[in-house]
């Protein structure tokens, strides 16, 4: 059965802000939502502790039109040493405010093409049983140039596949089945409600749905529906990466992510032991990467007046021993690092 065609997309879009204000980029994000050919049914903007001057500049842009619902948090809970801090409070509150059948989260520095919701609606209209839908993530450069991911199996993907199959293909190493969205997904809101206690505790809902929601049903994909990930110096992950290179704070975070995602994943019907192993291997590779980049900082910064080691030596030894758990992957990190820098790999794992 095909749904009745509507003049809007039954989806709530939530623009998530927080961390260092990126006001000009936030205005661009709001504009790309307002400019959609097919309008979303509901629009929510999360004001995560912005100052009055920041909010005034956003308001003066006239992009926060009357059809936006604004949820204001008086305090910014972002902690640069905790990647999970940014969304664990704002996520559930925005979910409570949403009323549409589907929900889509977008960071306040990213964009989507003007036909994105139109193409997503077509996918769901043709197959109403779809629980998650996504487009192709591409980088958006400073001059507006699009940075496509390396050619891979994403280019020949089917439009509709069972989520369990998508999960298995994404987490097979060396396969660019679906590059890292750097975005969330169009998600059936009722399923997000089912995992509300776990999905937001691990940060922005781009990775966690792969473990907690996608294997539950039909996944839709349209490579012509572009999700634009803005490439700029103030991307939050850059701050986290720099911190990790000093103290490898990803190390304990990946352990927590594995524990929580694995606990939810094993309760999903149809998930088998091989799937759980794929999840474990993914986090093992991620942890290995974080160890290697921290170990590389064993050499002091010679340009700094403070000629000290960035990371305590005893931790370097610990990380070296951990890398021995994944010898082949570790060798590739050391001798073929360029292969790991291709834009679009899912958090650089598909290698």
Corresponding CATH architecture of the largest domain = Alpha-Beta Complex
The major β-sheet equals: 10 strands, mixed
Mean pLDDT: 85
Which range best describes the helical content: under 10%, 10-25%, 25-40%, 40-55%, 55-70% or over 70%?
25-40%
Strand content: 15-25%
Total number of β-strand segments? 10
> Could you give me the name of the CATH homologous superfamily of the largest domain?
Spore Coat Polysaccharide Biosynthesis Protein SpsA, Chain A
- Find the structural class using helix and strand composition: alpha/beta
Structure description:
The chain is of the alpha/beta class and 351 residues long. It is built from 13 helices and ten strands. The protein folds into two domains: 222 residues, Spore Coat Polysaccharide Biosynthesis Protein SpsA, Chain A (Alpha-Beta Complex); 112 residues. Strands 1, 2, 3, 4, 5, 6, 7, 8, 9 and 10 form a ten-stranded mixed sheet that branches. A hairpin with a 5-residue loop joins β6 and β7. The C terminus is likely disordered.
Outline the fold blueprint.
Elements: E1 9-16, H1 23-34, E2 40-48, H2 52-60, E3 68-73, H3 90-97, E4 102-107, E5 111-112, H4 116-126, E6 130-140, E7 146-147, E8 160-162, H5 163-170, E9 186-188, H6 189-194, H7 196-199, H8 208-212, E10 218-230, H9 236-247, H10 250-265, H11 273-295, H12 313-323, H13 327-335
Parallel strand pairs: 1-2, 1-4, 2-3, 6-10
Antiparallel strand pairs: 4-9, 5-10, 6-7, 6-9, 8-10
Main attributes?
alpha/beta; 351 residues; 10 strands; Spore Coat Polysaccharide Biosynthesis Protein SpsA, Chain A; 13 helices; ten-stranded mixed β-sheet
């Amino acid at each position: 059965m095909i749904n009745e065609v509507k003049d809007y997309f039954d989806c709530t879009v939530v623009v998530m802000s927080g961390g260092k204000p990126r006001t000009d980029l936030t205005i661009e994000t709001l504009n790309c939502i307002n400019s959609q050919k097919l309008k979303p049914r509901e629009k929510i903007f999360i004001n995560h502790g912005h100052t009055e001057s920041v909010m005034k500049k956003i308001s003066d842009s006239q992009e926060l039109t009357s059809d936006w619902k604004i949820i204001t948090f008086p305090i910014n809970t972002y902690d640069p040493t905790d990647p999970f801090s940014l969304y664990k409070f704002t996520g559930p509150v925005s979910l409570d405010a949403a009323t549409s059948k589907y929900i889509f989260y977008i960071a306040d520095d990213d964009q989507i093409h003007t036909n994105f919701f139109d193409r997503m609606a077509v996918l769901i209209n043709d197959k109403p049983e779809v629980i998650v839908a996504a487009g192709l993530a591409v980088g958006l450069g400073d001059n507006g140039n699009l940075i496509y991911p390396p050619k891979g199996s994403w280019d020949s993907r089917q439009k509709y596949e069972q989520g369990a199959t998508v999960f298995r293909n994404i987490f097979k190493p060396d396969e660019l089945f679906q590059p890292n969205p750097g975005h969330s997904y169009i998600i059936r809101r009722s399923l997000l409600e089912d995992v509300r206690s776990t999905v937001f505790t691990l940060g922005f809902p781009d990775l966690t749905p792969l473990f907690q929601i996608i294997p539950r049903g039909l996944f839709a994909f349209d490579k012509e529906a572009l999700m634009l990930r803005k490439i700029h110096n103030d991307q939050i992950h850059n701050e986290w990466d720099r911190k990790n290179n000093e103290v490898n704070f990803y190390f304990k975070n990946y352990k927590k992510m594995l524990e929580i995602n694995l606990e939810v994943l094993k309760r999903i019907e149809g998930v088998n032991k091989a799937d759980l192993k794929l999840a474990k291997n993914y986090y093992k590779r991620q942890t290995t990467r974080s160890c290697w980049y921290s170990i590389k900082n064993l050499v002091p910064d010679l340009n700094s007046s403070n000629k000290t080691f960035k990371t305590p030596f005893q931790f370097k030894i610990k990380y070296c021993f951990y890398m021995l758990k994944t010898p082949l992957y570790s060798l590739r990190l050391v001798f073929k690092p360029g292969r790991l820098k291709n834009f679009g790999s899912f958090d650089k794992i598909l290698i």
